[in-house]
Amino acid sequence: MRKRLIRSALVFALAVGLCAGAWSLPSVRTVLLDSFTRRQAAYIELYFTENPRFDGASVLVPFAVNDHGSGSRSLVATLTVEAADGKVLATETYPVEPHQGAAVPVTARIRAKGTDVALVRVSLTGHPQTLHFRFGKPPEL
């Protein structure tokens, strides 16, 4: 009886040790968590923190990028200013270093060639997010 108890305790200790060792491996832990935990899909949030506005011959575009688990180390935001007829007046790129779960605010300044700025677009290179802001009244349909 005593030998059986000792053997059972050793088998249990060995099983606990193997489970603890497997759990300490990041790849095993990820697979196990994915198998019994509903985890949110990673995404990158892009939004205006204020409405874009004119500042002399430039347009100030305040926006923020918030990384929710994508693991991106650097992103590139492309700003485009367009006229009412769709003609591109200026394009600029801004590097953004996202911080996991924290918003990174950016206030971009883009010089507009011409005075008929009607639309500002912000996009992230390689990602589907796009923002746009239209100055003035909306076009009639």
Describe the structure.
This protein has 141 residues and is α+β, with helices and mostly antiparallel strands. Helix content is 23%, strand content 43%. Strand 2 (53-55) and strand 3 form a beta hairpin. It has helices at 2-23, 26-36; strands at 43-48, 53-55, 58-68, 75-83, 88-96, 103-111, 117-124, 130-134. The chain is rod-shaped, with a radius of gyration of 26 Å. The chain is built from 2 helices and 8 strands. The termini are far apart. Strands 1, 2, 3 and 6 form a 4-stranded antiparallel β-sheet that branches. It has a 4-stranded antiparallel β-sheet with strand order 5-4-7-8, with no helix packed on it.
Chart the SSEs and their pairings.
Layout: H1 2-23, H2 26-36, E1 43-48, E2 53-55, E3 58-68, E4 75-83, E5 88-96, E6 103-111, E7 117-124, E8 130-134
How much beta, percentage-wise? 35-45%
Q: Would you identify the regions where 5 or more consecutive residues have pLDDT less than 50? A: none
**What is the H/E order?**
HHEEEEEEEE
Q: How would you sum up the global shape? A: rod-shaped
Structural class: alpha+beta
- State the major sheet: 4 strands, antiparallel
The tally of strands reads 8
Termini separation: 88 Å
What is the mean pLDDT? Answer: 84
- The helical percent reads 10-25%
How many helical stretches? 2
Rounded to the nearest angstrom, the radius of gyration is 26 Å
